[in-house]
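> forwarded from #structure-qc
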């Protein structure tokens, strides 16, 4: 499943083509994805202009001039590609080779961009676990998908004090606590493994150890918050980690997977200088956790 860096990479790929663009025609090639498209989905978009292209956690958010927000989640295998009429004037105009997986093109947005050029933005999803919905902007923060969502992991709000406040009474394993979307929004399995390794923290240690008895953050909390931000930002700059189905909007692969220190490296030597350990794997909350049992305490 695409994680936050992959979704942010998609957002950045869509933004030049969609922000300021007008929906000329919306083509739904099936009645549903993970959920059925709501009544009025097409008519609420056609003729409207996209005012901004945003993201909250792993949700893409298109603000529409009529006060609605188009929410788009990629699910397990969803991806977008952009096809523009002029390759010379439209960078990223090509994603998947023509004829490959086109049977899984379920939604086509026919747009006129802010330069008055025709653009098609195509949503492809072999497993159909993605979904789209329209929500009024005024209702967004109280919607069931967003009302309990934690802070973003790449802003200044994520610091040692925040981790200490959220985790001070939690006996849950640190890895599991970090994956709780009510604590930190959009933080996924791959990048938690990498941040914990950089921080030298075992995924099984109790989350409450990030807080002192007074509630103030420990040095571990300060260290971990910095590494979380660094890992996410580095992954975004690298275009994400292209595992299985994920592609950027121009069809290219992300490259952060070439920087993995622990994820999917079971049995390999730890990359920390002077560490003689090997990477191990265990299951936590139904997901694979990769870690070094020698240097992560």
């Amino acid at each position: 499943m695409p994680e936050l860096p992959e979704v942010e990479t998609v957002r950045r790929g869509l933004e030049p083509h969609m922000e300021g663009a007008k929906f000329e025609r919306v083509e739904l090639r099936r009645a549903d994805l993970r959920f059925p498209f709501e009544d009025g989905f097409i008519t609420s978009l056609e003729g409207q202009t996209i005012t901004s292209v945003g993201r909250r956690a792993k949700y893409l958010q298109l603000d529409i001039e009529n006060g609605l927000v188009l929410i788009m989640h990629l699910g397990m295998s969803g991806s977008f590609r952009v096809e523009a009429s002029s390759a010379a004037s439209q960078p990223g105009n090509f994603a998947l080779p023509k004829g490959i997986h086109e049977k899984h093109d379920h939604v086509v947005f026919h747009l006129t961009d802010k330069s008055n050029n025709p653009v098609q933005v195509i949503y492809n999803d072999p497993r159909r676990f993605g979904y789209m919905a329209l929500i009024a902007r005024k209702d967004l923060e109280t919607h069931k998908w967003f009302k309990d969502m934690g802070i973003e992991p790449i802003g200044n709000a994520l610091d040692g004090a925040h981790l200490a406040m959220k985790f001070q009474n939690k006996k849950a394993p640190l890895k599991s606590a970090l994956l709780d979307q009510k604590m930190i929004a959009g933080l996924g399995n791959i990048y938690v493994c990498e941040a914990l390794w950089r921080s030298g923290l075992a995924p099984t240690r109790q989350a409450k150890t990030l807080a002192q008895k007074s509630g103030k953050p420990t040095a571990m909390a300060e260290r971990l918050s910095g590494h979380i931000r660094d890992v996410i930002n580095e992954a975004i700059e690298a275009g994400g980690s292209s595992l299985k189905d994920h592609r950027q909007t121009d069809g290219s692969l992300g490259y952060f997977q070439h920087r993995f220190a622990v994820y999917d490296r079971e049995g390999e030597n730890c990359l920390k200088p002077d560490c003689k350990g090997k990477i191990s794997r265990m299951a936590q909350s139904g997901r694979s956790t990769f870690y070094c049992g020698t240097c992560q305490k």
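QC bot note: The longest strand covers residues 105-112. Helices lie at 4-18, 41-45, 160-167, 174-178, 189-199, 219-237.
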